[in-house]
Amino acid sequence: MKTSLRNDRFLRALRRQNVDRTPVWMMRQAGRYLPEYRASRAKAGDFMSLCRNPELCCEVTLQPLDRYALDTAILFSDILTIPDAMGLGLRFVEGEGPVFDRPVRSLDAIRSLAAPDPEVELRYVMDAVRTIRGALGDRMPLIGFSGSPWTLATYMVEGRGGHDFAVIKKLMIDEPAALDAMLETLVQSVTSYLTAQHAAGADALMVFDTWGGVLHPDAFVRFSLEPMRRIVEALGRSCPGVPVILFTKNGGAHLERMADTGCTALGVDWTTSLADARRRVGARVALQGNLDPVTLFARPDRIREETARVLADFGHGPGHVFNLGHGILPQTPPDHAAAMIEALHALSPAYHRPV
Amino acid sequence: MKTSLRNDRFLRALRRQNVDRTPVWMMRQAGRYLPEYRASRAKAGDFMSLCRNPELCCEVTLQPLDRYALDTAILFSDILTIPDAMGLGLRFVEGEGPVFDRPVRSLDAIRSLAAPDPEVELRYVMDAVRTIRGALGDRMPLIGFSGSPWTLATYMVEGRGGHDFAVIKKLMIDEPAALDAMLETLVQSVTSYLTAQHAAGADALMVFDTWGGVLHPDAFVRFSLEPMRRIVEALGRSCPGVPVILFTKNGGAHLERMADTGCTALGVDWTTSLADARRRVGARVALQGNLDPVTLFARPDRIREETARVLADFGHGPGHVFNLGHGILPQTPPDHAAAMIEALHALSPAYHRPV
Question: Which residue among the candidates B15, B67, B78, B160 is catalytic per the annotation?
Fold first, then answer.
């Protein structure tokens, strides 16, 4: 199926092959900024009911593709489905975000964690992937994704999105072997989850490491990077040739080491220059990013200038997937996202012509 | 007075001169984790009433020095005194932090901003510095401080601590010249404020750039770094020879450029290794940091190991001021801070002996 996609710009760019223009997608492109998403969400009820409904997941996944000239779909789901499937009880609290009813707070609780079976406890995700894959046909690729082991562990131990990350860091310092064991279970869980998403129809796989950037570099290497590296290695066996993208928010200091994992591409947020990132990782990986999502609150003429700046920052040649540096914000005017995409389509072909 | 201090380790370390052991202080060392602070705060009423009372400011400034073997005092105040003196109406809301009643939300409001006179609108701060200086005598140095222009502007425009920084970033992208003008007023304000703190008795001056790390590198240079550079330059004329410390939270990517400002030392948070920072800035500046404050929630034996790790990370020789990578957290057990300081005093002399 991959070789016969009508639009394969995204997969080609990930492999640093030539393209006619820079492919684009937006993190959280199916989301609250779109009125059609809000209507689907209202039909579903709460957020997790939407995630558990394959037909509605497919509906919202396709919405941004019908509105904008985007180059890939991404599964509509949440990064915390694995801990929910482990029995922690995921809820979304208005104005606060994700909360677990039963956070992991003891060594016994860590020992009792087991990797969920993707086709049993997470079957609703696989059904969503299959439904979306069927609806997309050969139109464009589909990205499957998961949270990184460190990011999942952070939510599982803190019980909610962190500020100081006091609970997980105390565990990390006082009981590092217990955290290693927890991360090992999560490496297995994420690997089988992503492998199953690929089997169900995902063409590329992305690991979101939302909280790797809050660690000391040595702690990042042990508790965030090394688990991701083992996932990349395992996916190389279970899904050979499938592109894997790693994205650590605020991880600009670690790009060289992240490229060393053998992944296909790195997400880069806006606090790192793409020119600097490209210089540092060389030809080993493609780069994905990195317009600050807040830019889409500015005037459309400024949005075009900032889009041009990101293109110029990466520069000429293959290996760039245009994206925001983080998820599109709920208050974003949809026509401002259109201004960015139109500017990209107008300006990016010049970066792919022979010099 | 500076040359006759009984304890001048901190000032010597800032100038990369030899010391017998690594000097130490803690950001927010006078704070809520101390029961004696909470008692003083209760006497004052709200937080700003404490800041406006020179006798109580002096009392809380000295409290950590009586409890721990620290090497410098730091003025007890807030980074937002300048915008408050500009008439924005600073309040502290429980569970939320600082809020301005009259945020800056128009170009007219920016044009009407005027630099406050430190001995008039901010006289309560200068009185606090004079009172503390008198009480300290020749015991140890005193640090004066301010927020950076970018950080002050962020609070002034957002009206409160940011999450997405959507308001200030929209101003930055849509009206960069207006933001430049606002920052120019803040450069003048911070320079005269710090100059007056030195005249009132501060031996070293520190600029806290809490939010510089949320910017794209180009935006950081223009809107955060360049204003700080001009303050360093102006202080070189108004207070020649006085050490100036710059600290950008999450600014590890910018250390070389920050050292180029001509400042004396850089604060480093725990997301950057001190060995890496030292390699990058060479002998141009001293480094201050960088134990993750959450470490003080761990067991005392682990706190000692982590303290040893920070010392080893910086390595042998002069130019290190031990500190946390951010302010000490309110829930910190006071005896855990003692464990860190005792470990430092036991371990650090070895790093200052001739090799």
Answer: B78
Classify the C-alpha dihedral B341-B344-B345-B347 as positive or negative: positive
d(CA B56, CA B317): 38
Q: pTM of the prediction? A: 0.96
Contact residues, chain A, for B292 at CB < 8 Å: 169, 216
What is residue B134's three-state secondary structure? Answer: helix
Task: Provide the strand spans (E) within A85-238.
Answer: 90-93, 97-100, 142-147, 204-209
State which amino acid sits at residue B12.
R
Nearest CA among A34, A64, A36 for reference residue A140: A64
Contact list, B273 vs chain A (CB under 8 Å) = 216-218
Residue B270, token pair as written in the block: 């725990």
What ipTM is given for this predicted complex? 0.95
Neighbouring C-beta atoms of residue B92, cutoff 10 Å: 14
Q: Which of B253, B270, B294 sits opposite A170 (nearest CB)?
A: B294
Q: Chain B residue closest to A253 (CA)?
A: B253
* Cα distances (angstroms) measured from residue B278 to each of A62, A173, B247, B252, B286: 50, 25, 15, 11, 8
Yes or no, beta carbons of B294 and A169 under 8 Å apart: yes
Residue type, B171: L
Residue in B215, B250, B297 closest to A170 by CB: B297
Rounded Cα distance, A246 and A223, in Å: 15
Q: What is the reported pLDDT for A142? A: 98
Q: Which residues of A touch B302 (CB under 8 A)?
A: 173-174
Please give the angle made by the CA atoms of B214, B287 and B51, to the nearest 5 degrees. 65
Catalytic annotation on A299? no
Helix (H) or strand (E) holding A12: helix A9-14
Q: Under an 8 A CB cutoff, do A271 and B215 touch?
A: yes
Crossing angle of helices A176-200 and A226-238, rounded to 10°: 30
Average per-residue pLDDT for chain A: 96
Contact between A330 and A57 under an 8 Å Cβ cutoff? The reply is no
In angstroms, the CA A237 to CA A231 distance is 10
Contact yes or no for B292 and A216 at CB 8 A? yes
pLDDT band at A94 (very low <50, low <70, confident <90, very high): confident
